[in-house]
Design a protein that fits this description.
The complex is a heterodimer of chains A (417) and B (177).
Chain A (H helix, E strand, L loop, with lengths): L4 H10 L8 E5 L2 E5 L3 H10 L11 E4 L9 H17 L2 E3 L6 H8 L6 E4 L13 E4 L2 H10 L1 E5 L3 E7 L8 H12 L8 E5 L8 H9 L8 E3 L4 H9 L19 E6 L6 E3 L7 E3 L10 E5 H4 L2 H11 L9 E5 L3 H9 L2 H7 L2 E3 L20 E4 L15 E4 L2 H10 L10
Parallel strand pairs in A: 2-3, 2-5, 3-4, 5-6, 8-9, 8-11, 9-10, 14-15, 14-17, 15-16, 17-18
Antiparallel strand pairs in A: 1-7, 12-13
Chain B lengths: L4 E8 L6 H4 L11 H5 L10 H10 L4 E5 L12 H8 L2 E6 L4 H9 L4 E3 L10 E5 L4 E4 L5 E3 L5 H8 L3 H8 L7
Parallel strand pairs in B: 1-2, 2-3, 3-4
Antiparallel strand pairs in B: 1-5, 5-6, 6-7
The chains are: A alpha/beta (417), B alpha/beta (177).
Amino acid sequence: MGKTLAEKILSLKSHGEAKAGDVVIADVDLAFVQDTTGPLTIRQFKESGFEALAKPQQTIIFLDHAAPSPAQQLSNDHILLRCFAGETGCRIYEVGEGICHQLIAEQFANPGDVILGSDSHTVTAGALGAFATGMGSSDVAVALALGKTWFRVPESFLIELKGVFPRGVYAKDLILYLIGQIGADGANYKALEFGGEALAQMTMPQRLTIANMAVEAGAKVGLFPGDEITQDFLIGHGRGDNYKPLYPDAEANYEQVIPVNLDQLEPMLSLPHAVNNVRPVTQVKGVKIQQAFIGTCTNGRLEDLAVAAEILKGKKRHPGTRLLIAPASRQVLIRAIKKGYIQSLIEAGAIILPPGCAACLGLHQGVLGDGEVCLSTANRNFKGRMGNPEAMVYLASPATAAASVIRGEITDPREVT
Amino acid sequence: MTDLMLKGKAIKLGDNISTDDIIPGRFAHLRSNLPELARHVLEDTAPEFASRVRALSAAGEGKAMLVAGKNLGLGSSREHAPVVIKMSGVGAILAKSAARIFFRNAINQGLPVLLCDTDKIGDGDELEINLTGGMIANLTSGITLNCSKMPPIMSAILEEGGLIPYIQKHKGFVIIS
């Protein structure tokens, strides 16, 4: 029998034959926490009686969710995390360095790695062919100490992509469309594996956007093969030596095959309050918005800011809106400054937030008021997500967000470009 | 050790209760103060939940059982979600399905999650749960429900009362075939 990507990686990392449905103990190559789940992880680690990390250099703390901290309690959590880094010798990325998932992609993830993070969007690194998944604080605490965790080997869905994105349609529209098709739990416990001829033109930033949201269909991982595009990305980020080709076997067994023709996609939106509540933008346009938020581990990359800057250059946000921009990392911000994107965005009326999670999860930097509507490029629009259960969050691509903030209402980006 | 026989009353919730519903991100500053955080459990979605759980405990009618529909606990990996449910006094969670990370987190906290046809349970129904057999007796309706089995490693973690006591005992993971 041939193997899926998930079976290949877990076979390698469990030093045996891993088939879908098996329970295996696998090596963890990289484990990380962020500042809202890290304090509990550390307390669990200490409560267990652990003192040392299995792999200090492959253990990372990211201060990105409350960055900079808006409350004394969160500032104290940051102190706890910094002390733990000092005690154990693990790596720490300070406030302002960027979002954990972006930094993992820029600096750490490799094809075939097993990556564990105490954050559900850890799946993002699947774009690089890493079996990367989110777990809770207890599981990550144990993985920090043992360098291992247990997995049930997931069955895989093959998402077979062909065609090219039409004008105004982006990776975000594809993954929203797919989540609408699969449902919020349609891939629960499963691996989403992406394949097909369209991958040859699919850039790493696009793959990261897609893998990032695999969890919104319930999936354990969202996996891309390790191919030439992966290799180019790794070379471009100074770790070309870490590249190894990684493809599923031709005769691999998939629980489902879902074909998607990119030629036929159009700009999509998730409506409040569920990510799988997906409609084409054409059916929703005209809804008034008070805030647009471009950033997050889904869409805060250089390419996303480029799309937004191109649409907004020489234009202004609608006077009834706020436009928030949060680059996903310091590197993204520096490059966006050099390219002139930040100037275009500021001239259009944008507020530039520090690299980090910013307004995404409702704890600071853009909390919504009662009845307000935000068009966000993030990955979740659950009730209360942006800090107010009386507010509404729509999810869309950076192009749709940029087009909408000009008119002050949900707008098809194809109408303004 | 987790109690293998539980008795209590159902508090019913709907489908797709997210971890943001269970404990919203705006309370992130309380995550190092779990008793305070637990006061906000399900505050936006089911504001009466916490007081109903307390009332059941106070009346000596056994533990409250959180009975949900499908895809319970979707979203964030915050283990605080099952932690605050457990701290609020809930004895077990019953659902048609549960999101992957939430399910694992609850078991790691020693909070039983049983997957079964929760349409057969009404709000306020009296339930008797046998964790070993994976059976739920609905004493109100007289119906017995079978629950889907979890991997043996998860049953072992639950029996020890959670992942931390499990690891303290075994010093690692033990695969039971």
